[in-house]
Write a structure and sequence with these properties.
Helix content: 25-40%
Shape: globular
Oligomer: single chain
Strand order of the largest sheet: 6-7-8-3-9-10
Largest sheet: 6 strands, mixed
Radius of gyration: 19 Å
CATH superfamily of the largest domain: P-loop containing nucleotide triphosphate hydrolases
Bound molecules: adenosine-5'-triphosphate, magnesium ion
Amino acid sequence: MALVQLAQVGKVYRSLKGSDYVAVRDFSLDIEAGEFFCLLGTSGCGKTTVLNMVAGFETVSAGDIRIGGKPIAGPAADRGVVFQGDDSLYGWLSALGNVEFGMRMRGVPRAEREQKARHYIELVGLKNQEHKHPSELSGGMKQRIQIARVLANEPQMLLMDEPFAALDAHTRADMQRELKRICAATGKTVLFITHDIDEATILADRIGVMHAGPASKLKGIVPVTLGEAERERTHDNFVAVYRRVHELIRDEVAIALQRTH
Ligand SMILES: Nc1ncnc2c1ncn2[C@@H]1O[C@H](COP(=O)(O)OP(=O)(O)OP(=O)(O)O)[C@@H](O)[C@H]1O
Ligand SMILES: [Mg+2]
């Protein structure tokens, strides 16, 4: 049985003015335990909506989502979420305080949680910045602290919504490598949203492409069976995966553009 099962999931956003918006319809997907699944699609197609439903922040309007065979009842510690944007840090806590927060809530002793928090802050490349508060950090630094905070809670699943979008190319490549290493080492199951086909091809075991909205669902899934040496932009097999994903998404970009003009 797959760890995450989305079966004919639908999401209707109810508007106060009475005009409902069907964001997602008939969305079905199984994600295996330990799998790294990347979700791609045009802006506004419903990627964040899907992630928020898996996270338990949004209810489904139709169908159901199960984790380990059980319907989800809301957000839980087994799913760590990295949000799109970087505004969910607590402004009154230092970077270290933010990363420690979840462990403090669970009663992890001070020395242990501080050591773990420092470890994850170092992993995201922010050693010696841990005393700073969010207002003293750049956008990319805040995003990395968010990632450290989620990793420090050591959830079974990572739900990541364009987590590296705000980072410079160099830091981004470092973070991609690090995330891959952590996931391989700890067997985490990942649902990762990105706009970037290169990023998806570097990271994913499978890449799912969504239709343009409204009433979006998966258009196709591309398996990525590349070895480490093939996960290079210039490798022929890498380019072949890129092309397949690009072919799936190309028409959707045109459709999305037409619908907004
Ligand atoms: N709370 C909400 N109320 C009403 N409509 C919403 C709400 N959240 C999202 N939508 C609509 O649902 C659709 C899907 O939004 P969603 O945020 O899931 O897109 P996305 O694929 O994540 O886009 P992006 O790539 O720009 O982040 C959009 O048309 C959006 O306007
Ligand atoms: Mg989004």
